[in-house]
Amino acid sequence: MEKPYSKQAKRLIGYFGYAVFIGYIMLWGATIQQKLIHTAATTFNGVPRFVFMIAFPVFIGILLALPGFIANVRSNGHWKIDWAKLLGVGLPAFYITICPLLYAVAGDMALGGYTQFFISRLFFDDILRTVSGLALGYLILSVIQKVKYDD
């Protein structure tokens, strides 16, 4: 019979290894971002940088939600999407996350003619964009749930 602390130790090692893996991915992403910043400065084409600024936090959010999603997949029940969470949190997070790309591609017209101050403070703020991208990525997997069958 396996000792109870042995199972907890395996979980601890697994989660720690996963955290190290995510840390490595984040360092790799920072390296790529620096290369894209340099490329954008030399070629005057910022679209690849904007795409990476959008996609990378979403990818990290998906990685953060992955252990819970795997546990959800292994459980019994039928699949359900939490539409209230997806629309209430996901849509604003999606909009804030993609606004820099919309602005880079279509200019002020894509954002509905908001003032430059509003655009620069809200949509180009690195922290806000990163947090909304992480939330969006996390939501992509966390809104998909299994609900127990009614007996």
SSE blueprint and pairings:
Elements: H1 4-43, H2 47-74, E1 78-81, H3 83-106, H4 116-123, H5 126-142, E2 144-147
Antiparallel strand pairs: 1-2
Helix pairs in contact: 1-2, 2-3, 2-5, 3-5
Question: Average pLDDT value?
Answer: 85
What does the radius of gyration come to?
Answer: 19 Å
Q: Count all strands and give the number.
A: 2
Q: Strands across the major sheet, in which order? A: 1-2
Which structural category fits the helices and strands? Answer: mainly alpha
Counted by DSSP, the helix tally is 5
Can you tell me the overall shape? flat
- The ordered string of helix (H) and strand (E) elements is HHEHHHE
Percent range for helical residues? Answer: over 70%
Largest sheet: 2 strands, antiparallel
Indicate the low-confidence ranges by residue numbers.
none
**What fraction strand?**
5-15%
Termini separation: 33 Å
Give the oligomeric state: single chain
Explain how this protein is built.
The chain has 5 helices and 2 strands; from the N terminus they run ααβαααβ. The protein is mainly alpha-helical and 151 residues long. A two-stranded antiparallel sheet has the order 1-2. The model has no long low-confidence stretch (mean pLDDT 85).
Keywords:
151 residues; mainly alpha; two-stranded antiparallel ribbon; 5 helices; 2 strands; flat
Summarize the structure.
With 151 residues, the protein is mainly alpha-helical. The protein contains 5 helices and 2 strands.
